[in-house]
Amino acid sequence: MHRLLKARPGQKMLLLGNEAIARGAIEAGVGVATTYPGTPSSEISMNFFQIALETDLYFEYSTNEKVALEVAAASATCGVRSICVMKHVGLNVAADALLTLAYVGVKGGLVIVTADDPFMFSSQNEQDNRYYAKLAGLPLLEPSSAQEAKDMVAYAFDISEKLQEPVIFRTTTRINHSTETVIPGEIQAPQTHGDFTKDPFNYVPIPAVARNLHARLLNRLKEAEELSETSAYNISTGNGRWGIVCNSVSYKYVVDAVTDLNMGGKTKILRIGFSHPLPKALLKNFLKECEKVLVVEEGEPYMEEALKAFAQEERLTLPIKGKSEELFSRLYEYNPAIVRQCLATYFDVAHKSPAVPDLSDLPEIPQRPPTLCAGCSHRATFYVVKKAAEGMETICPTDIGCYTLGFLPPLSMGDFLICMGASVGTSCGFSKVTDKKVIAFIGDSTFFHSGIPPLINAVFNNHNFTMVILDNGTTAMTGHQPHPGTDMTALNLEGYGHVSIEAIVRAAGVSQVAAIKPYRLKKSIAAVKEALNYKGVSVIISQEPCTLYAKSLKKLRGKPFFVSEKCKNHKDCINELACPAFFIQNKRVKIDPTLCVGCTVCAQICPEKAIVPLKEKVL
Amino acid sequence: MKTTRLIIVAVGGQGNLLASKVIGEAALQSGVPVGMSEIHGMAQRGGVVESAIVFGDAQSNIIADGEADVVVGFEPLETLRALNKCNADTIVITSLAPLSPSTAITGTCPYPELKKLKAIIRAKTAKLIAFDAAALAAQTGNVLAVNMVLLGALIQTGTIPLTVDNVKTAITTISKQAFAASNLEAFELGFDAAKTSD
Lengths: 619, 198
Known about the structure:
The complex is a heterodimer of chains A (619) and B (198). Chain A contains 22 helices and 23 strands. With 619 residues, chain A is of the alpha/beta class. In chain A, the strands form six sheets. A seven-stranded mixed β-sheet of chain A has the order 3-2-4-5-7-6-12, sandwiched between helices. In chain A, helix 2 crosses helix 3 (42-52), helix 15 (377-388) crosses helix 19 and helix 16 (422-433) packs parallel to helix 17 (444-460). The model of chain A has no long low-confidence stretch (mean pLDDT 96). Chain B is of the alpha/beta class. Chain B has one domain: Pyruvate-ferredoxin Oxidoreductase, domain 3 (3-Layer(aba) Sandwich). Chain B has helices spanning 16-29, 76-81, 102-105, 114-124, 133-139, 146-156, 164-174, 177-196, and strands at 4-11, 34-39, 48-55, 70-73, 91-95, 127-131. The model of chain B has no long low-confidence stretch (mean pLDDT 93). Classes of the chains: A alpha/beta (619), B alpha/beta (198). Chains A and B meet through strand 8, helix 11, helix 14 and strand 21 of A and helix 1, strand 2, helix 2, helix 3 and helix 4 of B.
């Protein structure tokens, strides 16, 4: 039985924040869960995926976040408790659905989990998704710990059903990826079947209907504000005239800092867990009881600006600060030391900074950037395209996935990146206004997510570029989640369809299409050359399973190679491929047999043909 | 309860997260308050994995610069990189088996000499325990047991509020059955190595 199902109510266990959220949803009787995977949210849905195999829960990896939200919106409209999970930028994709769904509302609870990523540990931006709640007019909840994350999911479903609106559940990486003690509660049996009653004057927001629905939404927001005023998740602790308003993980840092700085007797903390609509009366009363207030929130000054407005309404003139030159930054994530320092500065409390050692005399430490795995098929594809494009001036827009790492030297294939699918859309623009050869790189899962509309655009508007689809059969970056092109039978899973990338590309009207096996360098280079020379839209589909995925399926067949005595130390292998299986010992290139997967790419480019298969068995 | 802050740094694939899991489980079973956080965004792609483990009453479970009581490094360069987490009272345990990053392999930036690396860490912290954990793991027949070797060394120092028995039980509970014996053996080897390490 799945670990999260086995967990006994009342019995303490250690859970990752993401596991706690999944357990919370199961406890709340969730019937439908949908997602498009994205760090730091991926473990939530990975757990749903596994749990759905043993329970009545319906779970799907949808093609993108917008579709995921639409699926969940419909099931919730039919009265089934539904949850939709995504990373913060995923909500941008789903925003079109979200903003009108707020008008239309739901019947069964709908919880939308958005996992923000301050410091951008694994994201392209650090947008603060609390503003989506404000923009859409929806309730917003923010847990500060794993236990709270679990408990708050059930609360989110309750509020959603009470207000008949989706609830946004916002976490940050430190909530998602912290492991803490959690006490599980009882599991409620899921209701997985619902019904839909026709009601077009509430469900079909043509302008005349939408005008009513917007008014209704504002009324529901008022109701939501009343819930926020009395919510047990807006917690006030301590006594004193110094006030601190905080949210999410910052709450923990504040509690520790107040202890460390001996501010306990003078300080009152208000932790906001129900952060849209903000509890206006509660906050105004808090302000009235304080002589000065500090707002501690990672990201944007969302609460700070609201507090300043509330103070203005009450004609209060006390200092309220948060983000400023000498206090908190809008950049990156906070930590206990930053919070302690800012509290000490603002409230003028004596404080000893931690004694960080003087590291000015350290030698330069080589960076360890994440790199494509040993034998990764993307490395082969990039090498192939690079060779095929030799002599051409190129622009290579790239996309979101492991292959983004191809931008690093020595491959250096990746010149422009915005968001999922943008490699193709931007290629249309780059090729229109420059004379350079434009080559778009996009992964298979990203192609399904948002690469198809820009491809159709390219065909219709007669653009001129080559699209290289790096098809490794899985959503590799986020942990090998399936996508519509994944062979589900290899996972022993039945009941799935299969969508061919090549068929879609051809159906979109691309005639110059070639599938390559990137480990076969010579043939592949010839095919890519032909594609690059084609005027119009050409597509290369580079097919080779992700090595990690193949390994997990026990389908990795290659044998390790080694560098024989024929090696004359040209180091082309290292300089052109930089596969992590290479290392240097006594100034000679060696291959780590435990890492090498036998892709043969280095063997093919070695001018001395010195890299050959290892005969004896390794570990 | 006094707060103790432990940082574990490793390269993706070295089993840092499993070691943290064992520590967390041991703490849970012995009633020691514990909070952990980890960064493993692109770790599968050979990046750095850092776990912060905080025992005791503190609420925060990340560790700011200069605030680690103990740092365990599964790879010497990563231990050196984590020096910013240390202070003059920090105890550092490191493996001496290097895993060269691509930047060192391609010659962009040389891998520091181990002798020098040790001297630097020693000069800036209270104590350094350094040995080749990979070699000890290999002795158990399980090269992946580097994490358990270093866990053994960590427990030997007595710097974190967990007993040998707590941790061994947790290793048995958490390890896949096929690896339980070699993991325990690796733990013992690391424990002994820490006693004699210079």
